[in-house]
Amino acid sequence: MRMSKLFLRTLREDPADAEVASHRLLVRAGYIRRTAPGIYSWLPLGLKVLAKVEAIVREEMDATGAQEVHFPALLPREPYEATGRWTEYGPNLFRLQDRKEADYLLAPTHEEMFTLLVKDLYSSYKELPLTLYQIQTKYRDESRPRAGLIRGREFIMKDAYSFDIDEAGLAASYDAQRAAYERIFTRLGLDYVIVSAMSGAMGGSRSEEFLFPCEIGEDTYVRSPGGYAANVEAVHTPSPEPVEAAVVAGLPAAYVADTPDTPTIESLVDVANATQAKPDGGAWTGADTLKNVVVTLVSPTGARELLVIGLPGDRQVDAKRLEAAVFPAEVEQATAKDLASHPELVAGYIGPGVLGPNGTPRDSDGTDSAEGAVRYLLDPRVVDGTAWITGANAAGKHVFGLVAGRDFTADGVIDVAEVRVGDPAPDGSGPLELARGIEIGHIFALGQKFAKALDLKVLDSNGKAVTVTMGSYGIGVTRALAAIAEKTCDDKGLSWPVQVAPAHVHVLATGKDEAVFTTAEGLAAQLEAAGVEVLYDDRVKVSAGVKFADSELLGLPFALVVGRGLADGVVEVRTRASGDREELAPDAAVARLLELLAGASA
Amino acid sequence: MRMSKLFLRTLREDPADAEVASHRLLVRAGYIRRTAPGIYSWLPLGLKVLAKVEAIVREEMDATGAQEVHFPALLPREPYEATGRWTEYGPNLFRLQDRKEADYLLAPTHEEMFTLLVKDLYSSYKELPLTLYQIQTKYRDESRPRAGLIRGREFIMKDAYSFDIDEAGLAASYDAQRAAYERIFTRLGLDYVIVSAMSGAMGGSRSEEFLFPCEIGEDTYVRSPGGYAANVEAVHTPSPEPVEAAVVAGLPAAYVADTPDTPTIESLVDVANATQAKPDGGAWTGADTLKNVVVTLVSPTGARELLVIGLPGDRQVDAKRLEAAVFPAEVEQATAKDLASHPELVAGYIGPGVLGPNGTPRDSDGTDSAEGAVRYLLDPRVVDGTAWITGANAAGKHVFGLVAGRDFTADGVIDVAEVRVGDPAPDGSGPLELARGIEIGHIFALGQKFAKALDLKVLDSNGKAVTVTMGSYGIGVTRALAAIAEKTCDDKGLSWPVQVAPAHVHVLATGKDEAVFTTAEGLAAQLEAAGVEVLYDDRVKVSAGVKFADSELLGLPFALVVGRGLADGVVEVRTRASGDREELAPDAAVARLLELLAGASA
Q1: Does the beta carbon of B122 lie under 8 angstroms from any beta carbon of chain A?
Q2: Mind telling me which residue stretches traverse the membrane in this protein (chains A, B) (predicted)?
Q3: How far is the C-alpha of B314 from the C-alpha of B290, rounded, in Å?
Q4: Alpha-carbon Rg for chain B in angstroms
Q5: Confidence class of residue A290 from pLDDT cuts 50, 70 and 90?
Q6: What pLDDT does B231 receive?
Q7: pLDDT in tens, A305-356
Q8: Using 50, 70 and 90 to split pLDDT, how confident is the model at A176?
Q9: ipTM for the predicted complex
Q10: Which residues are bridge partners to A307 per DSSP?
Q11: Burial class, B305, CB count within 10 angstroms (exposed 0-12 / middle 13-18 / buried 19+)
Q12: Pick the CATH number of B21-68+107-235+433-486 from 3.30.830.10, 3.30.930.10, 3.40.50.1360, 2.30.30.100
């Protein structure tokens, strides 16, 4: 490749909409270009990197025995209707109609289609296990596309699906994919943490995410010194043991006290300490209060339901944990209209008395209605026998010493309070730390959800029809590319590892001396003859400074600079990542580059 | 690849919806599978062929210096609005809205996006010429998807776009792409005819189609002994010289005669011969009659307009020529409602008197209205001074000797009559023959249509902004694959040329003898070590007959059969296309296959 002909324009200015380094630099270096929100075009250099990332993914998939197929992106509604996902995906799904007004979608993932294809072709346990995959363009109408390729609306995914006759088979298929993912991310040069995950839309029994640890990541996960790691959504808070009956029996009766102007936990704690003695003689803290948070759940069909979540006052509800817990419903703030038929909910002073089973009777189907009590779920820490300060359902009043199980009950448990640094890991492996990461892979032991919905059965060795057990395994290919850029870039530009770089060596001819260009051209040819991919900056009338800046921005792993030193018989070999520079005779420089490349690929 | 593990099921029955051999066999052989009308999934063997076809296209594109990029399929409306194609594409365009109700489309072709990208990056004539391409999934909501991959709604296209500063540059870019297309189709093993074409939706000055000659093709083209070749839509009918004034002066006056029960040209000719003498004493024929055909044009915005086409009664209107001539309007049969406000159109007896400039005055904007006369266009053969029998606008009456130019005029010319075998080629190169073909490539010298609409200018050598001149060049990649299948298949199945076959040699182990399987396995390994792609039929409990049938259906170029003969020290080498069989010692068979493969790739 010659820069004089390459379809490229580097930008000195950051694009206005770019929040993260990979996005900023991929655009500035002319690898990608924004076409619409969350939708990008690939320019020549970007497409070369993408092809190399895809090739590594493909090789490792093939090595597991997975077979590549390719499904359309434009799919009919019916299979997604059968599994409920046509509705469940809500506004994240791009939907359209064809000229005959038949419903179609742009596939966000292809479980349904793979299930139907296997059903179409296979009928016996002898044909299993089977793992199929594709590297394909996917669509999700994200509400907030952001960070360039990291959260886009059109993106490339590798999705694989395993089909087994039983759970043991699924476990083996799952492990094979998990191991392949470890090899893939290692080859791509991406660190990863494997965290337990909620399976969300997928259902199923086991699910893990591969996260690239990174400050700008959207996924928060926790880890413990003992090796526990989980997506924040998946952290399970163990309930403390219930308080012993004898202790509960000794607890004083609850009483209502005036607590004017205490709409917040902080103000409540202040007033409590100023006016009410704590039975154990200590000071009241936020952990003594039971906060009741009102939200509205919107089901995929659009039905709205109020929900109150009771949790210790020193903890917040974590929005992502809540979203995951109530899926497929979505969470919205309760509107004035939602609240209008519930005058019993006194803002800032809500308490259990009017909620859930302690409230007025609800409809027989258990759902909320204008006449019924609002559903009430409690944090796992609020075990029977614990005493709380909580709202008395009247402005300016709280109740003190209200005992769970004795004075109130709830409709159930919901584990959506924030996870905090220092919380104990659920497996006893020590205090949790928080970290952020980008989800680059996700593997699911789906089980039979899709096979049941679409009736995928095969005959077992006794001739009996049994439902197939499935797994699904995704890698965000374009997102992984962005993660590599994010990891390796610096303030000067991109810095690709050899295995995914658009070319290996950037040959720069600087100055105006014709001998420089002749020598550079010869060295480029020598390198190419040795199988090295070269980008040759042969531009005339472009200053050395601009060429150096472009070279650092484009981020090829090595550069060979032919310039002023040539008069003294030397050229310069530069290593982008380390910044190392070596002056060498031209032939020695070629040999050195071959050595560096061999070392980098090893 | 081993058949025992390959995700494949061959079918003995033809799929019900398959009209053509390639479709039937690609489905039966497990290469593709229908997902929705005109939308197909690719199974492992099909995907391997597709990858090889793509690789050949990519190599030849790269060899022209064209640079590969990749655009999204999901695109915003605005650029297509700017060029008018959002509307022009009519119901062929898949349109959708995102969650914010912004309009999007699934791109049928990407002229707009390439134009905008070049505008975004380039600004000087020094950066031109430039040719960019992509191999990408395209969408068209065909009204009649058919013939499997030949006319689909989601398909893969290679589309390239050239950018030049002037017409001479465009001509050079066009010729380079044209030459690359010749190499591509030759390498794919596809015969092709290059025909002049209408540029249709594209506008522009020069346009040629690459057709694969084939009975099942949807494109009819004409050719002459002297080398003329054109798409039927593009055939230009030369007008005869106008009749000399002196001759016209001697023509008798027109007169109306009763011609009851003559709704067809045949019945009219019969009645004319029975009741009216022809001035030259001969017999009336269909060529003496002027037939007036009513159609409705529907504009992209949905407006309906009646149009009457006058042409010699012995010719039919060609639907495709008409469609191309009135593009972007679409043609429909005139409905009773369309006709209701035009009682002057008497079915079977329509004549010029009530039409076009001879009719009652029309609206000032020239369009049809309930009060105005219907637009009237004439075949080029109806030159001034020619005399005709035509409708008298009253049931059961025709007018005889009505002279064009003397007695009636029209709004213009429309060249949409059928082209017939034996018609003279427009370039005088002899009588035309008709043939059918599949359009596998199309190249357009677009000129400035898109650059003007989207304001793509660069500075020329004088620092003056000039509009760029473009070309666009498409290959239907999935369609070309189907054309190869169509060309090479026979009644037993597919028969791939080596360069696109999913593998080179099909090794078959037949019988139950363990030595057969051991030997077959060893020979497969030997071939693979020599770089040969092998599909090994290692299935046990599958009869030799089924294996042979599958092998012929899958259509690998060569087969190596290890079976009964092994006891006598021989195996069989089969060539799929010729049916040749040779018995050889195992090692000699491997050598022979290497020789055959070298010959086939040469």
Answers
A1: yes
A2: none
A3: 9
A4: 30
A5: very high
A6: 87
A7: 999 999 999 999 999 899 888 887 889 998 988 888 888 899 889 999 877 7
A8: very high
A9: 0.85
A10: A295, A375
A11: middle
A12: 3.30.930.10
What does the alpha-carbon distance between residue A284 and residue A282 come to, in Å, rounded to a whole number? 7
* % of residues, chain A, pLDDT over 90: 81
Domain boundaries, chain B: 21-68+107-235+433-486, 245-413, 503-601
Query: What torsion do the CA atoms of A149, A151, A156, A158 make, to the nearest 10 degrees?
Result: 120
Contacts of A74 in chain B (CB under 8 A): 36, 39, 94, 106, 139, 153-154
Q: What is the C-alpha separation between B273 and B281, in angstroms, rounded? A: 11
A&B contacts, CB < 8 Å: 130
The Cα-based distances of A57 to A60, A67, A478, B49 in angstroms read 5, 12, 12, 20
Three-state DSSP class for residue A229: strand
Q: Annotate A352-413 with three-state secondary structure.
A: HHHEHHHCCCCCCCCCCCCCCCEEEEECCCCCCCCEEEEEEEECCEEEEEEEECCCECCCEE
H-run or E-run covering B136 = strand B130-139
d(CA B286, CA B273): 11
Q: How far apart are CA A263 and CA A261, in angstroms?
A: 6
pLDDT at A362: 44
**Mean pLDDT, residues A57-61:** 98
**CATH number of the structural domain B503-601:** 3.40.50.800
Pick among B2, B4, B6, B7 to test the A interface (most A CBs inside 10 A): B7
Q: In 3D, which of A99, A82, A80, A100 has the Cα closest to residue A90?
A: A80
pLDDT at A204: 57
What's the predicted TM-score (pTM) here? Answer: 0.85
- Selected residues 469-528 of chain B with any CB under 8 Å from a CB in chain A: none
CATH fold group of domain A48-210+437-478? BirA Bifunctional Protein; domain 2 (3.30.930)
Taking the CA of residue B42 and the nearest CA in chain A, the distance in Å comes to: 5
| H or E stretch at B283 | none
Single-letter amino acid code for the residue at B438: I
A216 at B interface, C-beta within 8 A: no
Would an 8 Å CB–CB cutoff place A251 in contact with chain B?
no
For tokens 């068209």, the residue is B140
So what's the pLDDT on residue A475? 98
Beta strands in A165-205 (DSSP E): 193-196
Torsion of CA B459, B463, B465, B466, to 10 degrees: -70
pLDDT at B453: 93
A141–B contact, CB cutoff 8 A = yes
Which chain B residues have a beta carbon less than 8 Å from that of A92?
Answer: 99
When mean pLDDT is compared across A31-35, A406-410, B228-232, the lowest value belongs to B228-232
Q: Of A391, A213, A365, A167, nearest to A289 (Cα)?
A: A391
- Three-state SS string over A15-28 comes to CCCCCCHHHHHHHH
Q: Do domains A48-210+437-478 and A503-601 have the same CATH topology?
A: no
Residues of chain B short of pLDDT 50, as ranges, are 200-202, 361-364, 366, 368-370
Tokens of A447: 């089980």
Q: Using CA atoms, how far apart are residues A368 and A366, in angstroms rounded to an integer?
A: 7
Amino acid symbol at A250: G
**Cα of A287 vs its chain's centroid, Å:** 31
> Which pair of tokens denotes residue A500?
């995914």
DSSP secondary structure code for residue B13 in this structure: S
- Supply the pLDDT for residue B602: 61
Q: Which CATH superfamily is domain B245-413 in?
A: YbaK/aminoacyl-tRNA synthetase-associated domain (3.90.960.10)
The one-letter amino acid code at A217 reads G
